[in-house]
Amino acid sequence: MTVIESQLAFRSKPQRSNVVPPRIAAEVAHYQRRRSDHLTLPTRWYRDEDVFRFELTSVFPYAWQLAGPLSSVSQPGDQLLADVGQVPIVVTRGRDGLLRALVNICQHRAYPVALENRNSPLLQCQYHGWTYNLDGSLRAAPLCSKEELSGKGVALKPASVDIWNGLVFVNPDPDAESLADAFPELEDLGTEWELAFNDGDYEYRGVTSIEIDANWKAWCENANECYHCPTIHAESFDAEFKSLKDREVRVTQNLVGAINGYRESGPVLARHGMDPTYGERYVYLHPGSFFSKDDYHIFAGYTVPVAVDKTRFVSHTWARKGLDPAFAVDWENMWERTMGEDADAVRLQNAGLRSGMMSYGQLSSPADEMILKFHELVVRSYADVATRG
Ligand code: FES
Ligand SMILES: [Fe+2]
Fold first, then answer.
1. Confidence (pLDDT) at 315
2. Distance separating alpha carbons of residues 264 and 57, to the nearest angstrom
């Protein structure tokens, strides 16, 4: 390999590790041995900096994650930002019509080349003005001679991009298997549960985010179970949905999902005389992407692990077209309140997880069926690290 080839090889891959630290490997083995006891993951995995670092370097850089709506990158020049773990990604629609995912890090001195979702024919770093084409190739670098930079392979690092039912997914690994190979259940589930995000009945509303004072896994766990719905969401989600009874849980090899039917006496629904039919469909894709679609509202988002006990959830939302605005506001408020109650719950839980006073919790089956599956997905994502070449 020539020097230039080795530079190119270096540039084409995120820096990652395929080593599972011995203590984590021992904990994975312990979990697998005691699986039938229905213990939780070790609480250390929610507070330990080394575990967090392991996830950032060895799990997220190989993971598919939802980025946003395909409609936001439909035109040449469209740019959509997302973070996978702590890898910043920009999805572009090129002038050649191709969709690409690029690592959003300028190859000069690491400033982002895109700061917001927008349309522009170029990616321009605002720090010293280096400019890239939408395919990631370097176009111009102020005060630098072409001779000096040419042949050095300077370009934005490529990542992988895929689409499903109107949503864009990204993976920092440029050699990732397809989304359909990673989640083969998605296609049939999308049809069965009418999970299209481009069917014209819903209007895209934009992107929001909330900050959560807890480890990212605690946030995802909370999303994955409704055991807590009658207790902490008694006046929000659980007032409108039959979240424990008339709930169909779908646990497959690679994902977790559920449909929650509506209550006939839901206060918001009753106040506005609404008569919904389908129910709320929820799907979780490890690590950290989940979406929910009900008759009136959709959110599709991803979880950003900011620090070991700081998490951001970035959420794209849609609303059913033609809704009475007063109902739409009330329904949105019900969802916002629900999310706020979830964020409060995991913040309070975080104190216990951090205390060091409990090594494992005790789950129960079937009450914790979705949590048991989530833990299996976490353990699998850790164990898979050792099998990579
Ligand atoms: S860091 Fe991008 S131009 Fe300097
Ligand atoms: Fe909740």
1. 97
2. 47
User: Which amino acid, 16?
Assistant: R
Walk across the sheet containing 131-132 and list its strands.
123-124, 131-132, 138-140
- Better pLDDT: 366 or 354: 354
Strand boundaries in 172-254, DSSP class E: 202-212, 241-251
Question: Does the pLDDT at position 10 exceed 60?
Answer: no
Predicted TM-score of the model (pTM)? 0.94
Question: Residues with Cβ within 5 Å of ion ligand 2?
Answer: 342
Residue type, 295: D
Domain boundaries, the chain: 68-177, 183-377
Cα angle, residue 112 at apex, residues 178 and 12 outer, rounded to 5°: 45
CA-128 nearest atom, ligand 1: 3
Strand positions, DSSP E, 85-155: 87-93, 99-103, 118-119, 123-124, 131-132, 138-140
Maximum CA extent, the chain: 72
**314-328 tens-digit pLDDT:** 999 999 999 999 999
pLDDT digits (tens, 9 = 90+) for 199-215: 789 999 999 999 999 99
The CATH number of 183-377, from 3.90.380.10, 3.20.20.80, 2.60.40.10, 3.40.720.10, is 3.90.380.10
Q: What is the per-residue pLDDT for 227? A: 94
Minimal-distance CA residue to ligand 1 atom 4: 128
- Which of 104, 105, 111, 131 best tests ligand 1's pocket when mutated (most atoms within 8 Å of CB)? 111
pLDDT of residue 9: 44
Q: Minimal CA–CA distance to 365: which of 38, 34, 35, 33? A: 38
Q: Cβ distance 315 to 209 under 8 Å?
A: yes
pLDDT tens sequence across 55-105: 999 999 999 999 999 999 999 999 999 999 999 999 999 999 999 999 999
Nearest protein CA to atom 1 of ligand 1, as residue: 109
CATH topology of domain 68-177: Rieske Iron-sulfur Protein (2.102.10)
Read out DSSP for 61-86? Answer: GG--EEEEEGGGG-STTEEEEEEETT
